[in-house]
Amino acid sequence: MIISFTSNLHPQTLRSLSVISHHPIPSFWGNRETMSSLSRELVFLILQFLDEEKFKETVHRLEQESGFYFNIRYFEEMVTNGEWDEVEKYLSGFTKVDDNRYSMKIFFEIRKQKYLEALDKKDRAKAVEILLKDLKAFSAFNEDLFKEITQLLTLENFRDNEQLSKYGDTKSARGIMLGELKKLIEANPLFRDKLNFPTLKNSRLRTLINQSLNWQHQLCKNPKPNPDIKTLFVDHSCGQSQPNGARAPSPVNSPLLSAVQKPAGFPPLGAHGPFQPAPATLPPSLAGWMANPPTVSHPSASAGPLGFNPPSNSAILKRPRTPPTNNPAVDYQTADSEHVLKRTRAFGISDEVNHLPVNILPVGYSGQSHHGQSSYSSDDLPKTVVMTLNQGSVVKSMDFHPVQQILLLVGTSIGDIMIWELGSREKLAHKNFKVWDLSAFSMPSQAALTSDYTAPISRVTWSPDGTLFGVAYSKYVVQIYSYHGGDDLRNHLEIEAHAGSVNDLAFSYPNKQLCFVTCGEDRLIKVWDAVTGAKQYTFAGHEAPVYSVCPHFKENVQFIFSTATDGKIKAWLYDNMGSRVDYDAPGHSSTAMAYTADGTRLFSCGTNKEGESYLVEWNESEGAVKRTYNGLGKRCVGVVQFDTTKNRFLAVGDEFLVKFWDMDSVNLLTTFDAEGGLPASACIRFNKEGILLAVSTNDNGVKILANPDGIRLLRTMESRSFDSSRIASASVVKTSAMTTFGAANPSAGPSIMDRVATMPSMIAKNGDNRSLVDVKPRVGDESMEKSRIWKLTEITEPSQCRSLRLPDTTTSSTMRVSRLIYTNSGLAILVLAANAVHKLWKWQRNDRNSTGKATANVVPQLWQPTSGILMTNVTSDTNPEEAVPCFALSKNDSYVMSASGGKISLFNMMTFKTMTTFMPPPPAATFLAFHPQDNNIIAIGMEDSSIQIYNVRIDEVKTKLKGHNKRITGLAFSNVLNVLVSSGADSQLCVWSTEGWEKQTSKNLQIPPGRVAAPVVDTRVQFHNDQTQLLAVHETQIAIYEAPKLERLKQWVPPETNGLITHATYSCDSQSIYVSFEDGSVGILTVSTLRLRCRISSTSYLPTNPSSRVYPLVIAAHPTEANQFALGLTDGGVIVLEPLESEGKWGTSPPLENGAGPSGLTGGATSTTDQSQR
């Protein structure tokens, strides 16, 4: 019997919900922390209820008084209507004028606009009132600005003021101001976690009440079939004379019985007994999708209890299969954090925008800088057509190489596959459709394939490391090729994958084993070993052909989304227990699903049989559509294709155009036609960085579009032949872990390419009947020939490279550079000198430097704010030059955390002002690192060998880590492995879990034979872009480890003639390592082989002076220019170095040598490879 309560509720009755049965139960409101969390959630439920009941004024009053949810739509409406008093009243529930600079700026902008509107209406009396009552409060902070505002009263038209000359009408001015207010609100720490309404099912409060009544009814001694519920003021009970048959007050409410021990929970109710043990734990994202299991069992589903579903009362309270559409009156987004935010905080760090100077103009602020997700604008989209490549037949699928981003793989409608090198516009490889070994196929397939000379391609895709790629054909076949650079393309696997068409193919990495997933017309999904071709799993359950697959992982759980042509979406784990999800795609469309590159957001795009297309974002925690994007057209045939880039933009080929959306806005951002010639539903594909876009054309071609960064990349590559050594090296080096699929397990056996070499001969392709055994000697001969030709690039003269010494006229210009870093935007260089003073050089955007990024071609400005203040660290009583300096830059370049033996200082990078200082010594901080997901969490390495995990926002040390014996000299986070790696002056590495902060493993660096390390020596650590391989820098060696087990993969020991290593860093693409030495030289290593390819002598960038010994102490790599780095010198100088434009890179990679073990290097260095430290 289901009880449904439908009458109106009064908000004051809601507290009675804490008692939901007659039995004594644990009070969830007793603990203060739990109570505050539940109270906050109850407010959200009340807000939803009031909104559904149309109590609009009450809704906004509660939003303001609780301070839990800032309704940005309501705020926009008031600002647009000029309801200034209501605007300030609403804001007062969340912040006050003097809370922080963001709040001050918000109130100033509002009052300034109110003042300008009064002036525009010639209402001088009102303007004077606003000036004295509202704006005078700001005079204490900026008296000059207040005087300038006051002088506007003397002008007939305030637009005569030069700064206000562009002020338009009232409507446009409010719109511009509103945009700025929204940025300020998003950046203000006091609004953190208050801008998004939790995602709730419709009428969630009513649902809880119904559940409560059902619990009470289940516990009645003599339950009636149709109970009469008349009130919520008392508990329900059948068979009583009181309303609802009310009993005496529940003992749970009785203060006399509050100390009585309470049972652990409810007794079992019918079939809803204790939950079955779960064989695995699902991430919340997938668990949300799996909350509603399908009502129809599929053949592949296990008959036993799945155990994966979260606790559910589905038998008591049925939930809808299709996620409901939320009420548009409230912007329900993803759920907020569950704790109650304090109204006031010590301070917090914004992830979005910098502190902005107060500006009288209601327009965009000069000097404003956005980074991270918000750093991209539509101007960064690739829109310039730079080339067209002729394919000869209709393009069906494309994919850019994951490492060499100017390599494009193309598959066509007749089964041709091509690899293009875009820098030279050269077609490196071209293969026609041909079955390699027809006898391996079933008889029906042999009969069909014998007469077929072509087969349309459904999908081409690279493996995560780019050493393999897969081709799915519309007829039975999947072929996997191994790619060794250039035109070296080898048959690897051929599989009869499905009966009929193979519709999609994707690589995945379950159980740390590279696999590929296919789906087909036979309604099946299959998982195959990418090395042996062995079938691992078959998933059955779709009732129509499977259209696409989307493998992914979250929180260490690997799963696959699949979609079918009937619009059904299912999800599978790598087991034999059937699908966990059964949802309908919007419009029952044939849809494809894709995650953003960072794996945090899920999108789907497809077209149904009626030609209607849908592009949506999913709320994974609920399995519901979060937002539907507008602007797609209707088509007669075909399915619309889409792609994502920069974790910010969506692109679709539609209506002979390429259409773009900002992921956070449902309205179309922009469109362009790529100079015409596009089909109705173009095939599109971005490269990894989003700077190149490939688009198919009507005339069997591909247009390559680029943004300014893409154009520069292609121009750089045009002047030199394609260097395939990087890709070739990947085929013999141990397979690296993939960022997208988790860490590779080095103990799992031979690498993919090692195992490829042992496979039997394969049948000919394109008339080439050489086996793999036949091919190997040829490659060996080429390698030996290259070995004779290749030689180390030596740069000894200034004319052989581009170098720039940054200008410095300050009194500290001769103080040695202790720390050096590029800003994340690449527009500036920040230095910390030995005297505890910071210096910042900024490059300006001009005709010679259109991007404004750091370059050796243009001299930057040593920047200081107009106040003239310096960012100077607090020092201790000891000599600051003897202190261990350290700093860390926030990911949006707004703040720098720094220390020079004294307190840690937090500086504003825009104003150089000290925001706060904390943690006085002893012990002193020796290394700082921001948490990659939260700017307010920092790891602080200490002089006493401990590591403190510190929350800046609440000024609290969360935990202290102990495992080293000497001071901490390096810290590095991995947001893929969820670990923190530390290094110390004890030459030890430690790995800590960022979830529980327990130590996972530790390892001492192995000092090379014949070398003696100093008793206290700095050891640095840095993660590769894949977030699994770890660079360890020691004065005696460069080593690469695989985290989290810290197995050493490679080691490089420099010749003793170079002196000790002073510092080293990865290039921004993690393809090179820049190493500085005590003799002033710089070595450049190729990461894949850890071999020296270029050596730069100090004579190429320093003036000859035998009496002075100057050398680099620190080295930093540009964040986006892979061949640019900067040196911080002992004499206080900072040098930016780049290769000559005619060269474009630092030397060429040495060829791979046959055989294993150490290999001698030109210049006397030795390389120890593949000698794992166990």
From TrEMBL:
Protein name: Uncharacterized protein
